[in-house]
Design brief:
The protein is an alpha/beta fold. It has 13 helices and 14 strands.
């Protein structure tokens, strides 16, 4: 790891002692294909009104370049999300991409709208043991889905969820979940959504919306800290360019290009080092993209075991994890988060023993 503490942009008055940075990022967000079949208004790319801002972001990643990038991970394996702003089911060579990742033993976590999930693709995901598939629903009724995501095909998306659950059966993977981004247009259906899906899927994820550079509903801790994201996650766009954060859909930041310089050089390079320095010394105004953002608060959480669930609540998310499916939430899939408490796993095992008796 390069020492940037004597760089010309470091102000000695802050007596900066750099925080440790992992050799390689723990999470790799790879936009294999920046294309989508929806225009959700809360999306930092496809929700834009100006097509002129969207067009430069579109593209398909070169698979050979992607493989060369992954070849750098020889000691530690990242958790990979095969999309950032694209719908992963629209990746032209999806089977090849997934098979390539799983051959390397990489944990694959996918967010999808589910509209293009066929029987064959669902079977392929189960055969390949894709680690996690999270369906973005954001509604409990077709009318609300139309407001939030621009289509009223709720029945089709729900059918995709049940299709994957049916084909997976009792197998461990994929971990199947549904997600809901709370905003003014769907706030009234939160309770209905939770009741609809808790106990049906492995996990229900409830989050808050990101708008105008911040999470307006975020309840922040009293003291701001350096954002954990820039120590854990590298977002790679389809052309190999890296941004500071996955929320930077229009490429306001530029950390370098991994296809040209490699992952490790970018991860420990000057642009990331500067951002971490400004975060660690509370010079938020020096990183315009981060200045008004409160996403740094998302990693603190509380948890409880209740009614067959492990419930985790943070300022950004609430996760309702089924105790019956906790065994498929482990390893790299945790993405740097703590594993489920041993007591929760043992409680489920005790319940299973009682049922068998």
């Amino acid at each position: 790891m390069r020492d940037w503490s004597k760089a010309e942009w470091v102000d000695p008055k802050y007596n900066w002692k750099p925080l440790p940075v992992s050799d390689m990022p723990e999470r790799l967000l790879i936009d294999y294909a920046t294309r989508c079949n929806l225009r959700c208004h809360m999306c930092p790319v496809w929700g834009l009104d100006d097509e002129g801002q969207i067009d430069p972001v579109k593209g398909i990643m070169n698979l050979d370049a992607a493989r060369k990038m992954l070849d750098e991970f020889t000691k530690a394996q990242p958790m990979v999300a095969p999309s950032i702003y694209g719908e992963p089911l629209l990746i032209p060579n999806l089977r090849e991409v997934i098979a390539d990742l799983k051959r390397r033993g990489i944990a694959v976590a996918m967010n999808t709208n589910g509209l293009a999930l066929t029987e064959k693709i669902a079977e392929f995901f189960c055969e390949q043991k894709v680690d996690s598939v999270m369906f973005s629903l954001d509604s409990a009724t077709p009318e609300t889905l139309k407001k939030v995501r621009g289509v009223d095909k709720l029945a089709k998306i729900e059918a995709a969820v049940f299709r994957l659950l049916r084909i997976r059966g009792d197998r461990e993977f994929p971990r199947v979940g549904v997600s809901y981004t709370i905003q003014d247009s769907n706030r009234h259906e939160v309770d209905e959504f939770v009741s609809r899906w808790v106990g049906v899927v492995d996990v229900v994820r409830m989050g808050i919306v990101f708008e105008n550079g911040t999470f307006p509903d975020m309840k922040e801790p009293s003291v701001r800290v350096a954002c954990p994201v820039i120590y854990k996650t590298m977002p790679v766009h389809n052309d190999g360019s890296v941004r500071l954060c996955c929320l930077d859909g229009v490429r306001a930041t530029d950390m370098g290009n991994v296809f040209e310089r490699g992952v490790r050089e970018i991860w420990h390079g000057e642009e990331f080092a500067k951002a971490r320095y400004y975060h660690e010394t509370s010079q938020w105004d020096k990183v315009p993209f981060c200045k008004g953002c409160n996403g740094w608060a998302q990693y603190e959480y509380e948890e409880e075991v209740k009614d067959g669930l492990l419930i985790r609540r943070s300022p950004e998310y609430t996760y309702y994890n089924s105790l019956a499916r906790l065994t498929n939430w482990k390893g790299n899939l945790l993405g740097g988060h703590k594993p489920p408490p041993v007591a929760a796993v043992k409680k489920r095992e005790s319940q299973d023993e009682l049922v068998q008796a």
